User: What shape does this take?
Amino acid sequence: MRIGILNSGGDCPGLNAVIHGVVGAADQLGWEVIGFRDGFEGLLPPGDYTVLKPKDTIGILKLGGTILGTTNKGHFAAKVGKGDIAEVPPEIVAKAKRTMEQLEISALIVVGGDGSLTTGLQLYREGWPIIGVPKTIDNDLSATAFTFGFDSAVSTVVDALDRLHTTGESHKRVMVLEVMGRHAGWIALWGGIAGGANVVLLPEIPFSFDKISDFINDRDAQGYHSTLVVVAEGAHMPDGDIVTIDANCAGEVRLGGIGERVAAKIQQLTGKDARACVLGHLQRGGSPTSLDRILGMRFGVMAVKLASEGAFGRMVSYQAYHVDSVEIEEAVHQLRLVEPDSELVQAAKAVGICLGD
Ligand code: F6P
Assistant: This one.
């Protein structure tokens, strides 16, 4: 039997661990693995792919990015904006299907986020043998408690905050760190708590600059002259606006720029020096943490198990310390957001973190 794997959407630490898991588990079954390059694009004639054998995956566990390449634009980009879904045109699907048939692919493992899994779902509904593997540093897929890549992104945030602490304290400044996460605040919340941030601003919790400046002034009065602020790129300004750069080629809005706005307003209101730092794609690069390596590998192994059972249309999922699976259609179009009244948010508040509300 021959199966295919592709990575689609933004890259994410741990993608190579999934490939490692898939190739290892498939080899045990005597199956051949075809790795398609640059996401679904690799399926277009004449086909851009490579045969992956266990020897090809030696040493990749520790590598960030993906040895197969990926893209979040091109012929198969399924999302055109927040909540909007576009179908892949029939002529593109037909071309890709020819490659699947010529290569006699019996299962196609699609490793991607909400947009790529939406494409996978469309193909499954059109009869393709699709298995989904959830991937996103944002950790915002409702059908899985964790995705690989999130832990690595949070580690990068924590490392950045550790550094901002020292320069902020030396200059008695307010340091604002803008982090990724799109419309979900998970990276900001986890990174902010673990990195000792004093203020954490999330898309899910409306904030007011008066609350933040009062908090910073109180800290000053208590002798704490430096304040660390983490702001999620998708947080809403008090007037309800999200701050964007532009729309990328797939039509998905590019978030970014709120850090500077927040720093400028805090400086204006408190009279304290404030500086902004945008962490950006550093959060997506570099070696995966051990947790992401193990999670990615387990996801890959589970994907092969699902293929062996003919459980197409299902997506690997992680719940309660256990790797299992759910229907892809239950998994897409439903963002898992931070709940403002959750125990995690309450815990952050209990240790004195200001959420701006
Ligand atoms: O979804 C992952 C993510 O890194 C988001 O956190 C971020 O908003 C977006 O992708 C950035 O995408 P791009 O790499 O296209 O700029």
